[in-house]
Amino acid sequence: MSLVGRDKTSSMGPLPRQAWLLVLHDLRQELREREIVSTTVFFTLVVLVMFGLSFASLGTALHPLIAPGLLWLCVMFVGSMTLTRIFDREREADTLRALLVAPVERLAIYLAKATVTLLVLLACMALLVPGLVVLFPGASALATNPSTTIALVVLGCLGYVAVGTLFAAGLATGSGKHVLLAVVLYPVTSPVLLFALVATRALLEHHPRVMTYLGQMAAVDVLLLVLGAWLFEPVLVGVGRARVP
Amino acid sequence: MSIYTIEWAPPSEPVRGMEAQPHNVDDDGYVAVEGLDRNSVEHIRALEQRAAAKTASDYAHVVWAYGILWALFAGYGVLLWRRTVWLSRSLAQLRGGAETRPGAGR
Amino acid sequence: MTRAPVAPLLFGAALVLLPWSVVRVFLDTPIERQMGTAQKIFYFHLPMAWICMAFAVVCGIAAVVELRRRSVVAGAVAVASAEMVLIAGLGMLISGPIWGHATWGRAWTWDARQVSAALLWLIFASYVLVRRYGAAGSERLAAALAIFGAAEVPVIYYAVKVWKTTHPTTDVVGSLPPSFWAALWPALCALSALSLGLVLVRVRLELLAQQLERQADS
Fold first, then answer.
1. Cα gap C118→C163, rounded to integer Å
2. What is the pLDDT of residues C72-119, one digit of tens each?
3. Which residues of B69-79 are buried (b: 16+ CB within 10 A; e: fewer)?
4. Does C99 touch chain B (CB under 8 A)?
5. More confident residue, A245 or A150
6. Structure confidence at residue C87 (pLDDT)
7. d(CA C39, CA A162)
8. Do C95 and B65 make contact, defined as CB atoms within 8 angstroms?
9. Are the CB atoms for A88 and A35 separated by under 8 Å?
10. Residue C174 domain-assigned?
11. Distance between CA atoms of A199 and C162, rounded to whole angstroms?
């Protein structure tokens, strides 16, 4: 399977096609083994049960206050786990190094990994959001505004994935200390978390400014994607030789 | 200006309750002095006590804040100094070891 | 080639300026009416905040240079600046609540600047951890982290302001008259000299450590 796609019959440039081929490759592997999706979805279920146990005694009036935090903290936990696993698989088979050596655009690798992680996260969200609505009836606005909820979840996960892919890939090329990924990811994704919390709370309380907050989230996502894409190659491969004084 | 003075100017208008009382003796045999009655004097004493308590609390906070800041910098400085000493010693040892071994190193 | 002893000069300047700034703050400046003596904490708290932000920017720039040119000196500058961000940030995050407790009875007021400073402190703490405990080659990742941290300074501040709309508002620090600002500059100069001296010492330390590693390998 050629990854360098200068497909003369396609009107798309090589970059999107390369990214798409990488995504297909990863998805095909995942469909065969189903390891990442099953473990992360089960982890989401476990976290949901823990949240239910811990916060079930709170009154319905408090649900709009705690549901945003529960939702986005779960996203961060699941995201960290997913990223760790996706890049662990690459490191075990040493395929990341092979990918970097192959004539594939680095940006395509970044986009492909980010897309796959996003898809896995969204699969977990398909369980988490309805689960939260069931456990915390006060958060039912998540169900009654499906389009806004979907936009919110996609934007939040996208921002997280944009940052997380860069750092997970960077840590994967070394000896892979997983705790470092957690240490790095949570502070750096805090703007995404803050905006997501505000937007979710606005949605749950039927605040008129929900769309403004979603717009702000989209702007932050664009910034993080640009930064992540720009830094991907220097972080993984470096530029030129080291200068020693 | 002494650091022990507190900027408190007496009010320009008389405070309620500070009207001069005639020189008569009340129930406890308390005689008003300087035209101030007992209520007003106790009022003033309570305010002064609150001001003194605030000053004392403020000093404690100032001492803690400045102390912690200086301790942070001093601690970091000591840490750097100790590591520099250790590193210089290790480097000297390595260099000495390299020189005694002929043809070693670069 | 002999170099001017910049760090000792800076420490000497700090040694002179620090007592002088304390005299200016406590003896020459009147006590503020609303906040009392506790307001004097401000004269060291604000320079801490400025030093923290300044070195965060320096760290970000050094990280960019380190990534683009693979410069070892830039890497050393980045590590040293990040550690100074942690020290000054810690001083700011501790003196701020002490001041808040003295003035308003509440140590942590969820003020936008306070929260964003805490988040940035966490980012640079993770930078130092990655530099210290990351595998060989994680310097580039740490540099990316520093760049993210520096780039996110305005984003985090804005995000926290938006986030605060869901939190109760806090007391506003009233503006100070000009006579109170005069004592700020000696304190700022003293603390800047001290922190710059420490950063220079740390840069030299980092370069020494790398020299030791190369010597040990050869």
1. 15
2. 999 999 999 999 999 999 999 999 999 888 888 888 877 778 888 899
3. beebbeebbee
4. yes
5. A150
6. 96
7. 43
8. yes
9. no
10. no
11. 10
- Note whether residue A6 is domain-resident: no
What does the alpha-carbon distance between residue A173 and residue C135 come to, in Å, rounded to a whole number?
9
Task: Name residue, tokens 């404690």.
Answer: B60
Does the distance separating the beta carbons of B91 and C208 come in below 8 Å?
Answer: yes
Is residue C111 assigned to a domain?
A: yes
Provide the residue range defining the domain that includes C122.
Answer: 8-24+37-166+185-213
CA distance C117 to A198: 19
| Residues linked to residue B36 through DSSP beta bridges, in sequence order | B33
The sign one gets for the Cα dihedral C177, C181, C183, C187 is positive
Which DSSP category does C24 fall into?
I
Residues 201-220 of A with CB under 8 A from C: 201, 213, 216, 220
Q: Nearest Cβ partner of B87 from C102, C198, C209?
A: C209
Counted domains in chain C: 1
Q: Could you tell me if C168 lies within 8 Å of chain A, comparing CB atoms?
A: no
What ranges in A94-209 are assigned the alpha helix state H?
Answer: 95-101, 106-135, 141-144, 146-172, 178-188, 190-204
Residue A158 lies in a domain: yes
Q: What is the pLDDT of residue A125?
A: 94
Contact C70 A241 (CB under 8 A): yes
Of the candidates C31, C99, C208, which has its C-beta nearest B87's C-beta? Answer: C208
Residue A165 has pLDDT above 50, yes or no: yes
A17 versus C164: the higher-pLDDT residue is: A17
DSSP state, residue B5: -
Domain count within chain A? 1
Question: CA triplet C85, C91, C97: central angle to 5 degrees?
Answer: 130
Contacts of A190 in chain C (CB under 8 A): 119, 122-123, 156, 159
User: Which single residue is written with the structure tokens 């508002």?
Assistant: C169
Q: Looking at residue B18, what is its pLDDT?
A: 54
Q: What is the pLDDT of residue C137?
A: 72
Supply the pLDDT for residue A71.
94
Q: How many beta carbons lie within 10 A of that of residue A177, not counting itself?
A: 16
Does residue A244 lie in a domain region? Answer: no
Range of the domain at A62: 14-236
pLDDT of C213: 84
Enumerate residues 6+ apart whose C-beta is below 8 A from A155: A196, A214, A217, A218, A221
Q: What is the pLDDT of residues A80-121, one digit of tens each?
A: 989 988 888 887 777 777 877 788 888 898 999 999 999 999
Q: What is the pLDDT of residues B30-46, one digit of tens each?
A: 665 666 778 888 888 99
Please indicate whether chains B and C are in contact, defined as at least 3 beta carbon pairs under 8 Å: yes
In a domain, A7, yes or no: no
What is the CB neighbour count within 10 angstroms for residue A101? Answer: 9
- More confident: C196 or B96: C196
